Amino acid sequence: MKKEYKFFVYILSNYNRTVYYTGVTNNLIRRLIEHQHGLGSEFTRKYNLNDLLYYEEYKYSIEAINREKEIKGWKRDKKLDLIKKVNSGLIDLSKQLFKDYGIDDEEVGLFAKELALKR
Predict the structure, then answer these.
(1) 45-92, pLDDT tens digit by residue?
(2) pLDDT, tens digit, for every residue of 6-41?
(3) Which of 52, 106, 41 is nearest to 83 (CA)?
């Protein structure tokens, strides 16, 4: 039986919603924890981009990569319109996502420490 993969395009922002970052990953939970604990990209660390505002799931990596490129090419207003279609209050979706996967704050912290040790 073939293993099924999932790929995600996501948009992060800072607390004040002044900066947006679009990324792609094959493990959204891991990538969010990396970003939220300073283990993500230099850009997300610099601007404290820890809040997940939007994400899409894909079966094939090429689709996710192409969508990421498409969104990255958009102006800010178009990105905001996309986000607001599913998250009109611009709330951080990561807490609910962790909860949906049965991951509590303690587990997030332990996973972040494990990831940091691997670097």
Answers:
(1) 999 999 999 999 999 999 999 999 999 999 999 999 999 999 999 999
(2) 999 999 999 999 999 999 999 999 999 999 988 878
(3) 52
Ordered by where they begin, the domains of the chain are 7-117 (3.40.1440.10)
Alpha-carbon span 57 to 63, nearest angstrom? 10
Strands of 7-13's sheet in order across: 20-25, 7-13, 51-58
Of 46, 52, 24, 30, the residue nearest 114 (C-alpha): 30
- Are 97 and 29 a contacting pair, CB within 8 Å? yes
